[in-house]
Amino acid sequence: MVFSSLIFLYAFLPLCMLFYFLIKPLKGKNGVLIVFSLLFYSWGEPVRVLYLLLSAVVNYFLGMGVSPTRVELKKDLSTPTLRRKILLAVSLVFNIGMIGVFKYSRFVVTNINGIFGAELPVPDIVPMIGISFYTFQVMSYVIDCYWEKVKPQLSFYKLLLYICLFPQLIAGPIVRYSTIAEEIDNRRSTVADISTGISRFIMGLAKKVILANQLYRIVDSTIGKNDISGLTILGAWYGVIVYSLYVYFDFSGYSDMAIGLGRIFGFHFNENFNHPYLCKDITEFWQRWHISLGSFFRDYLLPIPVFGIRNKYTSLFLVWLCTGIWHGANWNYIIWGLYYGCFIMFETALGKKRIAKIPMLIRHIYTKLVITIGFGIFFFEDLGNLGTFLKCLLPTNANGWSDMTVEMLMANNLFLVIAAVICSFPLVDGFKKLSQKSENVKSLVSVSGTVLSVGLLLLSSVLLVDATTNVFLYWNY
Amino acid sequence: MDNNKKRASERSEQTRNLSHNDNRDSERARQLDPEHIAARRKAQSEQAKHLADSANSAANSEKRASARASENVPRKTSSPTVRKNPDNPLMTGRQGTRPASEGTSGGTHRTSNISPRTINTNPDASPKKQSPDQQQKHAMTQDERLRLRKKRIQEQSKRRENAFRVFNISAVMVVFVFCTLFMTFGKRPTVSYEEFRDLNKCPTFTWDSYFKGEFTEKFAAFYNDTVPLRSTFKDMIASFRAIIGIPYKGGVAIVGDPIKPSDDVPPTANVTSQSTSFKNPVNTSSKALDVSGSSSQSTSGTSQSSSSSAQQEVPEQHEDGAEMSGSVLVLPSGRGMSLFGAGKSTADECASYMNHFKELLPDVDMYALIAPTAVSFYLPEEYKNASAEEKPMIDYLYSKLEGITPVDAYSVLSQHVNEDIYLKTDHHWTSLGAFYAAQEFARTANAPVPDLSTYEVETRDGFLGSMNRYSGYHPSIKNHPETFTLYKPTNSYTTDYYNSDMTNERTDRRLILNLQSLNASEYYLVFIGTDDVVTHVKTDCHNGRKLLMIKDSYGNALTANLTNSFEEIWVVDMRYFQKSVSEFCKEKEITDLLFMWNTFSAMGPNRHELPEIY
Does one domain contain both B370 and B517? Predict the structure, then answer.
């Protein structure tokens, strides 16, 4: 099930909220969340719940296993015992193995067959939705236990709640255990939480349904065509720019919905997007884009030495290779990750001071260009099409500068694209700042916020009736 | 003026009281928001200025002076200290802690897993620092009084803020609950006339289907497909799409994936998402069938069975309507047309299939009528490059035929462009267009040629055909329903129908249904009704010629016009027919065979149906 569907909005969510707020004890509330989360995850493919449960059970024991025992704590050992090391290795093998089997086995086998001419049977495994997200969450939990950053969760149900909590289950953000550990045991949905949560959820819904879904229609008619050999220069650029906007609104909209839902239930997740298109260099872009993933790799992957070398650049290479692989089992994602890796290494080599000297305008043009072309790479899973597309971007494109269909698309979606560009600026912060000015302005902002929420909810619901435009980006994640 | 000052001073006091804020939740809520912290820091420094200013202004306020003369004096003297002391520690204290907090929740990644709650201690810490300061400077009693007042105002504003939150929650909840009730208890439609199809049905629950994931999937499809007031919402979506941009060059629009005319891309490559099938045609045409004097029950029973078999064997893209779609060009005048794009290879293929029929049945006279569509005649000159030309492709296909006589419908139709030969809101030709084509065919086949003057004419307003849905209910079409003119031959003939597997003969449907009883989107069904039947017409023309027409829906309108020309007419649709044509021709002693398709069928995926019925 996805958040941006009528059945979630008007069947699943009301039931879930009804039970959640009717039941008073926190134990009961947690139970409601677990039941509804499993229902949510099982929607469409009930079997996959078993894998989720398997992952939860195994990591529950591993989490306790990699933590120091009381005796070990008393001894205050400077290095972890062998048992803990082995169990950590087991957990890494298990979790990475899970992702590997479900997400990458097909890709790996196909490529081995292709490169070595082997004829291994291609496994027919459908990638499980959300597996990358929840497996990363559970990995962060076990590693944190090993590093003694968190105490292991002794209650299986509470750990299960952390893993399967439906707001962040299938499209992130990757929530660290430490972020919500306390709230699992002790939380309260205050009026402020519910109010903010609702507004946040609707904002995310509107981003997804009103902006992203409609933007995708443009993408579909430009770079998303079956045959892109006829793309004009304008068509290719327009398509990929709109696609970049689309990905942002789709993904951040989903994160907003997740954060908002979490908030309604009293959880405070960390932010996942911070207006990435305002960035002034690529390093900054990744500090603003999918923050929970970037921080995961930086915290858990960066300390790992590559080939025994702990070098800034080898580590960066590893991080960006993994970032690419994480986004999908396909070469274009790997290229995409390494592409960003190159720019980050370049910026690291250049140094912050020298970058700061470059005029702002040039920095913005540079970043937006890199990001846009990056999303072009991200979009085309077929490398042949990717090549065709990249050629279309160049002025040497034989199809000319523009054609009627692109001009028509641009005209017919003019306000939509302008609205999308405006919405990628921090508007909400602007209004918050404005409301600091006086009580009256604050009241005005509050009331108009409510009116806006209601309006956006209604408009989003109406637009959701047309299910054909409701694309979901994360089946592969 | 006074009011303003008062408000300003109130505000300032309230600001100072932020430091006394004991409401953890609201404070935390704000602090959790990383972007907010920076905003707040700035706002606070602004407020600090306010504070100083308003302290002065409060001192000068006459109103206050009269009301609390005793208070005023110490206040005035303390105003410089107010500026310095209570604020500065507050400011430096906050500024000192805030950059750290900023780093924690928003800035760098390394630290982002530290709980944001650690910031919480800050607001509690600063008042402790501050209060001894204040105690030094102020008289105890006055300080107490001021505090009380501040507390009251602060509570007031907090109450106000909370009221807005409650308002926000309740407003959204009212809408939310209303929508939930509407979605749960609203009357769900079962058919969509605009879309020409039955909507998804609610699946029955079995554990088996649940564990396979089928139940949930189908249920979700049903839930989303049958939203109460669905067609109203679809209209709203269309209106929304019309206002998110500006019209291009006076309102011409291309809807759907624009087809680049190229050699190997079939014109309907992208139909699957848009194509919809009216899998249970009886539901919609039952009214018409009733009127035509039949027991609707028998019809629905048989027709259902035939359509369900069609469902199994005929892939989705071959259902009616999928002949076209792809991308549609909409003119502001309210005409929609499918853009054509096919290459020679598809024409080659189609011709070879047809030639094979001739090889199988050398004694049958065969004719091919490949009908152009509206795009050939009504595409404005400036958009010529948006679509491939149909004429050269028809000619090319004709040139590849061996032993099959081509019917030059194109030339005939092009002489009548100024008449209504194509429907504006539908992908079919009109009754009149079909008549001209039939005339040309009869002439080519040396059969008696019908005369239009003997025809009966019937009209009905309000037609909104397939172009409405292909164009996504584009306003140019939706707002221009057209008049449907039906030309009916007046000679006598009898019609009977079979299922597509030649079972279940019945005589309950007329060849031309009752136009007045059809829904606004399905006037074209007046000819024969649906495509999934075999039609058999016996006419009063006794020339011994028996025609088999292998057709797509363009042929439906043609049939009645041929009742003057052939003694018997068999009409089969290549997408549904389940028998072998060669055997059928021998069995029924067919003398003439007509391939009657539009260009999209001949050069689209439908051509692949032909080898299935050799």
Answer: yes
Contact B110 A7 (CB under 8 A): no
For residue range B239-257, list pLDDT tens digits in order: 888 888 888 877 787 776 5
Using the predicted structure, report yes or no on whether residue B233 has a pLDDT greater than 60: yes
- Name every residue whose Cβ is closer than 8 Å to that of residue A430 and which is 6 or more positions away in sequence: none
B245 and A413 within 8 Å at the Cβ level: the answer is yes
User: Do the Cβ atoms of A221 and B269 come within 8 Å?
Assistant: no
Q: Provide the shortest C-alpha distance from residue A16 to chain B (in Å).
A: 13
Length of chain B counted residue by residue: 614
Q: Does residue B214 fall inside a structural domain?
A: yes
Same domain, B485 and B352: yes
| B148 and B102 assigned to the same domain | yes
**Distance between CA atoms of B428 and B6, rounded to whole angstroms?**
75
Percent of chain A, pLDDT > 90? 38
As for the ipTM of the complex, it is 0.87
Q: B260 and B235 share a domain?
A: no
Write out pLDDT tens, residues B371-427.
999 999 998 887 887 788 889 999 999 999 989 999 999 999 999 999 999 999 998
Residues A154, A173: Cα–Cα separation, whole Å: 24
Please identify which of the residues A268, A275, A290, A327 carries the catalytic annotation: A327
Q: For position A13, what pLDDT does the model report?
A: 93
Structure tokens at A221: 């008619």
Q: Is residue A268 annotated as part of the catalytic site, yes or no?
A: no
- Where does a domain end: B168, B201, B222? B168
CA distance to partner chain B, nearest, from residue A177 (Å): 9
Each residue of A269-290: pLDDT tens digit?
Answer: 989 999 999 998 898 999 999 9
Q: Which residues in chain A have their CB less than 8 angstroms from residue B162's CB?
A: 191-192
> Looking at beta carbons, which residues of chain A come within 8 Å of B223?
6-7, 11
| Phi-psi region at A72: left, alpha or beta (left = phi > 0; alpha = psi -120 to 50) | alpha
In a domain, B17, yes or no: yes
User: Which structural domain range is residue B236 located in?
Assistant: 191-243
Pairing state of beta strands B456-463 and B482-488? antiparallel
Domain-located, residue B112: yes
How many structural domains compose chain B? 3
Angle at B346 between CA B344 and CA B350, to 5 degrees: 115
- Same structural domain for residues B534 and B575? yes
Give residue A15's pLDDT band: very low, low, confident or very high (50, 70, 90): very high
Pick from A10, A407, A468: which is nearest to B180 by CB?
A: A10
Q: Is residue B186 part of a domain?
A: no
Measured distance CA(B239)–CA(B236) in Å, rounded: 5
Q: How far does the CA of residue B185 sit from the closest CA of chain A (Å)?
A: 11
Q: Spell out which residues of chain A touch residue B34, defining contact as CB-CB under 8 Å.
A: 271, 274
One domain for residues B588 and B487: yes
For tokens 């918050």, the residue is: A432
Chain A neighbours among B 208-237 (CB < 8 Å)? 210-211, 213, 216-217, 219-220, 223-225, 227, 230, 233-234, 236-237
How wide is the angle at C-alpha B224 spanned by C-alphas B222 and B226, nearest 5°? 65
Interface of B with A in 98-137 (CB under 8 A): 105-110, 112-117
Of A199, A426, A464, the CB nearest to B35: A426
Mark whether B300 and B424 lie in a shared domain. yes
Distance from CA of B214 to the nearest CA of A (A): 7
Judgement on whether residues B533 and B584 belong to the same structural domain of the protein: yes
A202–B213 C-beta distance less than 8 A: no
Q: Is pLDDT of A241 > 90?
A: yes
Residues B31-65: b if buried by 16+ CB within 10 A, e if exposed: bbbbbbbbbbbebbeebbebbbebbbbbbebeebb
A-chain residues near B230 (CB < 8 A): 465
Q: Cβ–Cβ of A190/B25 closer than 8 Å?
A: yes
Q: Do B184 and A295 touch (CB under 8 A)?
A: no
